[in-house]
Amino acid sequence: MNDVRENTSHGTRAALSAPPYLSIADLVVAYDTLPVLARVELQVPRGELFALVGASGSGKSTLLLSIAGFIPVRSGTIQLAGKDLTRLPANQREIGMVFQGYTLFPHKSVFENIAYSLRVRKQGSAEIRHRVTTLIELLRLEGLERRFPRQLSGGQQQRVALARALAFSPQLLLLDEPLAAIDRRLRSDLQAEIKRVQRATGATLVYVTHDQKEAMAISDRMGVLYAGKIAQAGPPREIYRNPVNAEIADFLGGANLLPVDVVDRAASSCSVRLGGQSVEGIPCPAWLTTTPAKAVLMVRPEHWRIATAVDAGQPRFKGSIREVAFEGDSASSRVHLLDVGEVILRRSADELSLLIAGEEVLLELNPAEARLFKSK
């Protein structure tokens, strides 16, 4: 996982072909002698919403705070709009930040919280009122101008914090787990709100979250921080479909990782032996140059389907249901497959509603969506 992998789609290639707006190169951050970030590389085009995900303790917030200037870096560079920020104090970087706890001033009204950075910059009263009023309308905070933070809901506080961060038109906006304290139903609405505001203002955002689904839903591109580096970056769909290794595959959405023998390779597809059966049509990775070879097969839970004995096509694997968990409109099931082991199956709730523990099933995988990784 030493190389940054960049997946691009047609929608992002144009932006990435322009000079990067935020450019981080060879960044190293350590606490005392403990390295946290090791030679991080990241480029974010102007006007992009970039989400950063990673396991707890992976260094997501450390990277954000380093960009903001709150944590010193050991080596490497941070550039914004062509300007080197690496050794610049935080108050000279013109970067806005929204923290997980919002950090609103409890003794100031909504209006004064939003106006704070403008007053510090000694803007005129008319300009402050115009700017704050514009943001109140944009963030849909009309009627709340005189309220104090204690009189607001969590969602309203989040929007005030976002408005305050946008007030002085920062060159870059950083958001550190901004929705972590919000309930799931409201979180979806606020994700849409953040995207709407970002599009309306043209702001460049770096958005840190531990929630992979949130990152995929909100971002133009995303990066996965692993072992102190951004191991893969690109559009969410591309990273989900084509993770560069088993760790990222399992971290993003969960994956069935099954040991296989690759027995044959054609121009673009491979045949593997899984549970004593041959599965054809698996996309061949570039690293696989000779066969036979040991590998790990990734099958996403939604890429299994329940087959019938009369189905024709791919091999069918006999198994028994261990348990079924309903998740609203979808459901997942643990299935023990003969000669394969336990796998996770995810289908619509209607499709799995009649399954019970102990029932026998036949599963069939979608080979075109499966991926091969190097065997450790």
Task: Write structural notes for this entry.
The strands form four sheets. Strands 1-11-10-4-9-8-7 form a seven-stranded mixed β-sheet, with helices on both faces. Strands 14-13-12-15-21 form a five-stranded antiparallel β-sheet. Mean pLDDT is 90; it is low at 1-5 and 8-15. Helix 3 runs parallel beside helix 5 (154-166). The protein starts with a strand and ends with a strand. The protein has helices at residues 10-17, 60-68, 110-120, 125-138, 154-166, 184-201, 212-218, 236-241, 246-251, 349-352, and strands spanning 5-6, 22-31, 34-44, 49-54, 75-80, 83-84, 95-98, 172-176, 205-208, 221-226, 229-234, 256-265, 269-274, 277-283, 293-299, 304-307, 317-326, 330-337, 341-348, 360-365, 371-374. The protein is α+β, with helices and mostly antiparallel strands and 376 residues long. 26% of the residues lie in helices and 35% in strands. It is elongated and about 75 Å long. The chain has two domains: 5-249, Rossmann fold (3-Layer(aba) Sandwich), CATH 3.40.50.300; 254-374, Nucleic acid-binding proteins (OB fold (Dihydrolipoamide Acetyltransferase, E2P), Beta Barrel), CATH 2.40.50.140. The longest helix has 18 residues, at 184-201. The protein has ten helices and 21 strands.
CATH topology of the largest domain: Rossmann fold
CATH class of the largest domain: Alpha Beta
Could you tell me the number of beta strands?
21
* Helix/sheet category: alpha+beta
From the alpha carbons, calculate the radius of gyration and give it in angstroms.
Answer: 24 Å
Largest sheet: 7 strands, mixed
Question: Going by CATH, what is the homologous superfamily of the largest domain?
Answer: P-loop containing nucleotide triphosphate hydrolases
- CATH architecture descriptor of the largest domain: 3-Layer(aba) Sandwich
The structural domain count equals: 2
- Low-confidence stretches are 1-5, 8-15
Basic shape: elongated
Range of strand content: 35-45%
Report how far the terminal alpha carbons are from each other: 13 Å
Tell me the strand order in the biggest sheet.
Answer: 1-11-10-4-9-8-7
Q: Give average pLDDT, whole number.
A: 90
DSSP summary: helix tally: 10
The proportion of residues forming helix, as a percent range, comes to: 25-40%
